[in-house]
Amino acid sequence: MNLRAVILRKLFRRRVIGGKHTAFEHVISGIPSNLAGDAKSVADNLIKEGLILTKPTSYGLQISLNPERLDEIIKIIEGHARTALF
């Protein structure tokens, strides 16, 4: 399972881009529990890469996709979809 593409696709499907945010914890919901730790570290790496933006709030960390890097994000998602078919 390519967690990087799964996380990006989940945010993209929900249109969590730019000014629309979701809780960091929502990224790993729905991912098998044995991969939850890996998913958190992958999400942290996506933040460091700048593909995911953060917004600290009083009620927790909020995240969204970086709208300036949507082309790159779409290529990652589509690349995973092609390899998953074959």
What sort of overall outline do the alpha carbons produce when their principal axes are compared? Answer: globular
CATH class: Mainly Alpha
Helix- and strand-based class?
alpha+beta
N-to-C span? 14 Å
Instruction: Please report which band the strand proportion falls in: under 5%, 5-15%, 15-25%, 25-35%, 35-45% or over 45%.
Output: 15-25%
Gyration radius (Cα, Å) is 12 Å
Features:
86 residues, Arc Repressor Mutant, subunit A, 4 helices, 3 strands, globular
Tell me what the structure shows.
The protein is α+β, with helices and mostly antiparallel strands and 86 residues long. The protein has a single domain (3-85), classed as Arc Repressor Mutant, subunit A, CATH 1.10.10.10. Helices cover 53% and strands 16% of the residues. The protein has helices at 3-13, 24-28, 36-49, 70-85, and strands at 22-23, 52-57, 60-65. The chain has a three-stranded antiparallel β-sheet with strand order 1-3-2. The longest helix is centred in the last third of the chain and has 16 residues, at 70-85. It is globular. The model has no long low-confidence stretch (mean pLDDT 90).
